[in-house]
Amino acid sequence: MQFGVFGVGDVTTDPTTGRTPTEHERIKAILAIAIAAEAAGFDVFAVGEHHNPPFVPSSPTTILGHVAARTSTIQLSTSTTLITTNDPVKVAEDYAMLQHVADGRVDVMLGRGNTLPVYEWFGQDVRHGIDLAVENYALLRRLWDEDVVDWSGRFRTPLRGFTSTPRPLDGVAPFVWHGSIRSPEIAEQAAFYGDGFFANNLFAPMAHFAKLIGFYRERYAHHGYGDPDQAIVGAGGQVFVRPRSQDAVAEFRPYFDNAPVYGKRLSGYELEEYQKMTALTVGSPQEVIDKTLGLREWYGDYQRQMFLIDHAGLPLPIVLEQIEVLGAEVLPVLRREFAARRPARIPEAPTHASLVARRGPAAVRADGADAEAGAVGADAPAGGAEGTHAQP
Prior knowledge:
The strands form 2 sheets. Strands 1, 2, 3, 4, 5, 8, 9, 10, 11 and 12 form a 10-stranded parallel β-sheet that branches. A two-stranded antiparallel sheet has the order 6-7. It has about 400 residues and is an alpha/beta fold. Helix 1 crosses helix 2, helix 6 runs parallel beside helix 7 and helix 11 crosses helix 12. The chain has one domain: Luciferase-like domain (TIM Barrel), CATH 3.20.20.30. Helix 6 links the parallel strand 8 and strand 9. Helices cover about 45% and strands about 15% of the residues. It is built from 14 helices and 12 strands. The two termini are about 25 Å apart.
């Protein structure tokens, strides 16, 4: 099991002090959090992509390139890279470059985002969100897997004899997680390619994500990559920890109430109600341990657990305290307990080294066929226009 921290990079006023950090302060804080996460023993650091206030991470690869230079072991990822509004050619180039810079410590989570105007800003139509995700990823896979690409599609100009540079490190593309809040089409896409599926469960009840993960597992097996319980699953949720539960709740409540991504102001739920329904955990170290271990009952054995750590105006000193406590008191127990409960047949989260050893992601299906070649040569998963976007 991999454990990591991620952020959405919001510039939010601290509701307890009324102070709003500058964009520069917030960007520097993201870098400090990544470095602290490695020191505390976390396996993964991820940052989102946003192009609208109050968020600042418009260029995740720039941030992650800096983090790569300041760290040596932590895996670098995203939460999320927008597959709908980014040009697949640029995504292929940027993340292959990051692979080389970070000596392979890179994977990527693709998603559609949750900001409707971004489509228009980047010349796309939100009603084509699913179709864009399907077509753009089909092209991205080919750009990484084939040295020379001839391609034509619906949403961008054709390519003729095109080679994306640099080529992926060691000839192996970054492992891909497909993130979704509510779209079975995205779960199907992840299963079709034998990729990972990430349930970023900040917004909806755990029962909702259990159904989506269950569907992904069934389709993963249908496409011949293994049994349903061997599918590659990740989960995310925010935590806030203090030695005493009542202190954690009292301190975090104003941040929850004013959170710009979720919380009472947007959801209408009190903190206690929201905790019962979702993966949000505010309490003692033991409560964080118990809640996180309990996710296995909802989702089955899974490979990556990410904690949102710095949302809603939490000042950097408090975030760094959280990382230190989680690393010292929570992670060792979670590692031990998840390892003890996971059957030997359940795979670990893919890494560059493991993918190189297998000669590429999903290189051999359960039936012995070349899964990657089959996926590239087959028709992509069917998409469909939709008028709303990435909200439960």
